[in-house]
Design brief:
alpha+beta; globular; 6-stranded mixed beta sheet; 383 residues
């Protein structure tokens, strides 16, 4: 092994350990079981360890460039220099939106592929937050949110199949038949950039970095919900309303408990297993106020009791971005959503250097929703 290879391995190992230490530091900051003094002590120790690992990596790169008189060593890592942790930036570890120099870690050697990328553990935590903000994603099983690594995602399926019959002893077994189908989803990127003056970040009485990050993730979740529910066929993301079976109610009606019972039965008649009910806010309010035959009695229970969270034993999810006067009963195990890349939030202190502004960028690549069979999604549309 050449000296360049040795130094390369040393630098990479140090940077990977640094990413692990930073992830541990974030976990400590979120640990509510620790006292303030314990948390401060562990954060300080981990901060120093991250700085030492960074120094080790920097020394390896600088030695290689000095001894071999070339910049190719740094370029091997997708950047001409190392990230740095400045004392004034350390508070960034306390949130999930640090500056880019704090959480960049070595993941790719090709600048065209991204160069310095967000550590995968951090990216997953961002997507967990995004899923919590999205009513649609929260209603799906984790196994149905599919991570893929190509430009397109194809979900194969069986469109139809024959039913076997009875066969006498020693008789020829007849051949069955199947018709296959498949849905191809193409990755689309949701992106946004925002800017904040350094003075505002420094002087703010609140943790403005975290507030920015939380709001950006919330807006991405809003975009996903809007399209995952009602995106048209020509939208970047096609919604499940257009892929399911819609029942339109009579004039002046909003979905009721009876309508939901009928929709649950329709899913079961197609051998589906109803697992979640999505409702728009106005539908949720109408259900909560639905009266029983006995005067003054509400179907959902006493107004002083717990809020309406289940319908016929199924979880009730109030989706702010579901169209008004709508309810959806679905077998969520038959609904799929593709994720090409996790949610990334990056902060750059260089992009608007001449204006003393910090630029924040959110990027997530998704491939939309796919319904295995229309009968698995029963849409009730009020008039």
């Amino acid at each position: 092994m050449s000296m360049v290879d040795i130094l390369s391995a040393r630098a990479k190992h140090a940077l990977e350990k640094r990413a692990t230490v930073i992830a541990e530091l974030r976990a400590v900051e979120k640990d509510s079981t620790l006292s303030g003094s314990e948390k401060a002590e562990r954060v300080d120790s981990l901060d120093k360890e991250a700085g030492a690992l960074e120094a080790e990596a920097r020394e390896a790169i600088e030695r290689a460039e000095r001894d071999f008189g070339t910049r190719s060593f740094a370029e091997k890592f997708g950047a001409a220099g190392l990230p740095s942790v400045h004392a004034e930036e350390r508070d960034g570890f306390k949130g999930y939106l640090p500056s880019l120099s704090e959480y960049r870690a070595l993941q790719s050697s090709n600048p065209a592929d991204g160069g310095w990328l967000v550590p995968q553990a951090t990216a997953r935590s961002y997507f967990d937050m995004l899923r919590a903000e999205s009513a649609f994603l929260a209603g799906l099983p984790a196994s149905n949110i599919i991570q893929f690594d190509t430009a397109e995602l194809t979900l194969p399926g069986i469109a139809s199949s024959s039913t076997p019959g009875y066969v006498d002893e020693n008789a020829q077994i007849p051949e069955g038949s199947m018709t296959f189908t498949g849905v191809t989803l193409t990755a689309k990127a949701i992106k946004e950039m925002r800017y904040a003056p350094n003075e505002l970040l420094a002087d703010s009485a609140v943790d403005l970095r975290n507030a920015l990050g939380a709001d950006m993730l919330k807006k991405v979740a809003t975009r996903i919900d809007l399209d995952a529910f009602s995106g048209a066929a020509n939208n970047p993301l096609k919604g499940i309303i257009g892929q399911g079976v819609t029942t339109t109610l009579g004039a002046g009606k909003l979905p009721s408990f009876d309508d939901l019972a009928d929709a649950i039965t329709r899913v079961r008649m197609a051998n589906g297993k109803p697992s979640v009910v999505f409702v728009s806010p106005d539908t949720a309010a109408s259900l909560a106020k639905e009266k029983a035959a006995t005067a003054g009695t509400y179907q959902a229970g006493a107004p002083t009791g717990t809020p309406l969270t289940t319908v016929w034993g199924l979880p009730l999810v109030v989706a702010n971005n579901l169209p008004s006067k709508h309810a959806i009963v679905c077998d969520a195990s038959r609904v799929f959503f593709g994720i090409r890349s996790q949610a990334h939030i990056n902060a750059s202190e260089d992009f608007r250097f001449d204006r003393d502004q910090v630029a924040y960028r959110v990027v997530v690549r998704v491939a939309g929703a796919s319904v295995a069979e229309a009968s698995s999604v029963q849409v009730i549309r009020g008039s």
